[in-house]
Every structure is written in structure tokens, then in C-alpha cells.
């Protein structure tokens, strides 16, 4: 993405994500396939299942500072036990997702990242947070939202996994 106001004139989107276990990933991929069979192609259909902790848009010359800041925080954290459970939705943006039972350790990690000097110093318009940890099945479903909700009406799911690394 080109931005003439930046030093290098190029900005990039950077994500810090937790990758769930293979088993949980496979469940999410099966749910996406089920939804795809019902409504066809939709946003997020083919993305890798993940839980976003941080999403920032910054000048690519700041990448090194961002990564150093995140490495310091992550190095101090312990593995986090998480539980994927049920199908939920964000009606405001027409998103269907697998819920994640938030733990104190996840909440602490998220707060530490958002309070870090580098991230907290970024303008608000350059950062977004995933306040509700989740695994997206489908987003921006608009006209298909009701069908998507009905597709998983009777679905029950719960599985725990260890988050022992983050990807950025």
C-alpha cells in the first residue's frame, strides 16, 4: 500500500496471531467448508484459522522496532491454555465465529502488548485490537448472514488447546 506521507512511502499491515492446534484448525476449516457448500464463496473462506492479538498498519521502516517490541513481551509470557467453544456472531459486521474462552493469561498478554511503548505510541487509526478472541468462520456475510446462522444453529463444539507460540 502506497502512502506518500510516510518516510519510505510504503505501509504494511502487520498481524500478531496465535495459531490454534491442528485439531482446532481442522474443525474451523470443516465449518468453513460447510458454510461454503451452503452459501458459496465468501470473505475469510480460505484464510488460515488464527486468533488475532494485534493488527497494525505502519510504515515498513518501523517493522524492526515493532518486532523487537513484540519479541520482548512474548519472551516473558507462558504458554496459554485456551478453549474453543460454540458458534457465535458479531451481528454488526455479519461475522460468524468459533468462540474462544478467554483466560487471564491471554488477557494479560493482550494488555502487555497494547501497553508496550511502541504499540501504545501508535496513532489509534493505525491499530485495531481483537477484544473478543475468536476463530472466524465467515465475515462480511451481509445477505447470507441469516443463512449462515441457521447453518450452525444446532452445532455444539468445545476443545482445549495450548497456545505456546505467536506468529508475526
From TrEMBL:
Gene3D superfamilies in the record: Cyclic phosphodiesterase
Domain of life per record: Bacteria
Coiled-coil segments on the chain, per record: none
PANTHER family on file: PHOSPHOESTERASE SAOUHSC_00951-RELATED, PHOSPHOESTERASE YJCG-RELATED
Protein name: 2'-5' RNA ligase
Organism, scientific name: Adhaeribacter aerolatus
